[in-house]
Amino acid sequence: MVAPCNSLGEPFSRSFKGLIVWCFLLSLTPCSLATATSNKTGSLHFYKWEVEYMYWSPDGLENVVMSINGKFPGPTIWARAGDTVHVHLTNKLNTEGVVIHWHGIRQKGTPWADGTASISQCAINPGESFDYRFTVDRAGTYFYHGHYGMQRSAGLYGSLIVDVAEGEKEPFHYDGEFDLLLSDWWHESAHHQEVGLSSRPMRWIGEPQTLLVNGRGQYGCSLAAHYSNNSSLSQCNVTGHEQWAPHILHVDPNKTYRIRLSSTTALASLNLAIGNHKMLVVEADGNYLQPFETDDLDIYSGESYSVLLKTSQDPSQNYWISFGVRGRKPQTPQALTILNYKTNSASKFPLSPPPVTPRWDDYAHSKAFTNKVKALDHKTIPKPPSTYNRRIILLNTQNKMNGYTKWSINNVSLSLPATPYLGSIRFGLQNGFDQTKPSESFPEQYDVMKPPGNPNTTTGNGVYMLSYYSTVDVILQNANALAENVSEIHPWHLHGHDFWVLGYGEGKFTKADEKKFNMKNPPYRNSAVIFPYGWTALRFVADNPGVWAFHCHIEPHLHMGMGVVLAEGVQRLPKIPKEALSCGLTGKKFMTGNNLG
């Protein structure tokens, strides 16, 4: 039976869960995007996707975006904990490969489905297909995105929402929910950006032109122009412009709504505020939190949150929802949409101006929010091991190499190999990557408060080989960049695991800083930020056989080498699908008929 879908390509029955109502007419069309079957161990959700470029107007200016089945952003995946997701992905791009990473899904038993080119699989060539099949083992707010080249900047992303298993309940109540996927958008193509970053000297295309909410933004005008003193700023007229009209949140008075937030930005750190409303933060990266109330929320690239919103304000008014840039001097206007109390028209503007985003470099504000994020309890979140087996300190620096600008970790800029690590390690192909053990620290005399005395770096692709089931500490150490008095925010994301965020600190990490660790209720996450000139301490258990990326989630930084690769228990894996390893040295083995097992 063919499932009915709305104009977003989402299952119709689920798209209205939580009274999510769009201000545009939804058309019912026959749809073969998704089918679902059930069994005793959960449902199977099958999707047939085609990735291709198309013309679209994300912010009112027509451009080329990456799409899935003609949709931008891509279709939302809805599932329950314990379900299996199967995506048959066909690359309809004419000149480039593609992969998709399922951000926050740990891929237990299926590391080849992680969607990281040169690490877990080969890129899918034009005209070819690949089957991603994996279990979503835990409820939470997740998303997916391209992980090849700079395809996230080009618009290859979508939401992945996992509800609790049938018969289970969340530790909080809500009457309805919304899913907001946040991204940034440039008018120059991702290819322009990629070439500029790889040029000598580097040519930076600048800050994004627009912030998008569910793929929609407004460029060259403002929904709130009538509040501005800038006479040249025009009022947006979004009537009849479905592609870039704001995604309005329609609510009933005196209800509680869950707002799921995911940031797939390529560059921008963001702050969310809702006029006259407080938010209760209850989930981060698929893990429950001790609820805390806040007026605004910082969210970095790669992070996800759930907040509860009570619609307890004057129901005869509407209210602004604003997203502004943090951590970089903002040259990108706020993104705005409206919280519409359905007792009045969605076209009615709020009485007050939009909330003001905190100053971009008010890091005290950011740190105060971050330090409130704590795990709910050890019934839902595992307790961290009391000690570690191995500690790896990763110094984050900006460097030069033969005139090129690079980002480096312990003075090595990551350059991925032609053969996926998963195949090279599993089958003992030592020529597949650099066998030199990467450094686990940096020179004690290095001054993180100043530009590097010697700015030169090198490239490499060695692997941190972790003992299976060992406890690993990672200290992310920030430092001054090439220019004086510059240290940037870096949000780091670990594939295949969650980690405990034990603490944050200023300056250079020392052994004495361990006394600052939160061992009682540290948040359990897959992404964490390092603040300028600071450090962040993480702990995780290497309990998931596979090869995993660990990197800065700012896409230009990763492109310029800001990441490392971890491996554990690879020999414990079952047979790896040959489709994942059909390139490089493993591809040659298949072509010669050798059995890779």
UniProtKB/TrEMBL annotation:
CC per GO annotation: extracellular region; plasmodesma
Catalytic activity entry: 4 L-ascorbate + O2 = 4 monodehydro-L-ascorbate radical + 2 H2O
Keyword presence, Oxidoreductase: yes
Cofactor field: Cu cation
Source species, domain of life: Eukaryota
Any Pfam family the entry gives: Cu-oxidase_3
Keywords annotated in UniProt: Copper, Disulfide bond, Glycoprotein, Metal-binding, Oxidoreductase, Repeat, Secreted, Signal
Entry EC number(s): 1.10.3.3
Annotated ranges, domain Plastocyanin-like: 51-163, 180-343, 450-569
Localization, UniProt: Secreted
Keyword S-adenosyl-L-methionine: no
Oligomer status and interactors: Dimer.
Function: May be involved in a redox system involving ascorbic acid.
Protein name, entry field: L-ascorbate oxidase
Organism this protein belongs to: Populus alba x Populus x berolinensis
